[in-house]
Amino acid sequence: xxxxxxxxxxxSEEIESGRLAEGDKLPTEVELVKQLGVSRTVVREAVSRLRxxxxxxxxxxxxxxxxxxxxxxxxxxxxADDTKAKVRQIVELRRAIEGEAAALAATRATPDDxxxxxEALDAIDAAVAAGGDGADEDYAFHRSIAESTGNTVMVSxxxxxxxxxxxxxxxxxxNEARRTDxxxxxxxxxxxxxxxxxxxxxxAACAAARRHLKHAAARLQEADDGFWTETxxxxxxxxxxx
Length: 242
Description:
2 strands; elongated
């Protein structure tokens, strides 16, 4: 575990145990450096982890304070050891959510919903043709499926996880862009999902969505170490929720 993760875990335990209560001020940066024997950089990164997890709130000129206990954002930053593991887990999560979303969409999508899905697929092709990765357009396609279900909780969940999901898609598309056969396979899988939804076949739509993500995971498995090193230069944030 990285030093910042260890420090974040120590401070989280202080908060969860109640030793640092709601409204309490965290020790200053200098005090934490002295108490924990780490650098200022480590302390800052650990506090940033706590802030992203909704545990603390920095107040300009006053310090960092413990937030009220509430339903807190997911803290995904330290849940996996590396990018490869995190992306694999995101794909697994998407398979569970998007399979059901596609099934519901097949029974609930209106002609306008289907038209939006088709527009999203056209946008992916246009983005790639223009030299982009199509990641945002890919996310928009999957989100349009969820929106067509009429399930506001599902849509809100996807919106909440938006940046994490977009980042996962950006990595998978970077991998798929390395090979023409990968790119064409993804395109066919997307169109298979749309066709099943448009035909009103819930079972086929669910199977197509799950198959798409199963294949995405398999394609990631084929990526070599060089690719995973390159992902460090991608504009991704696998820890942030929106």
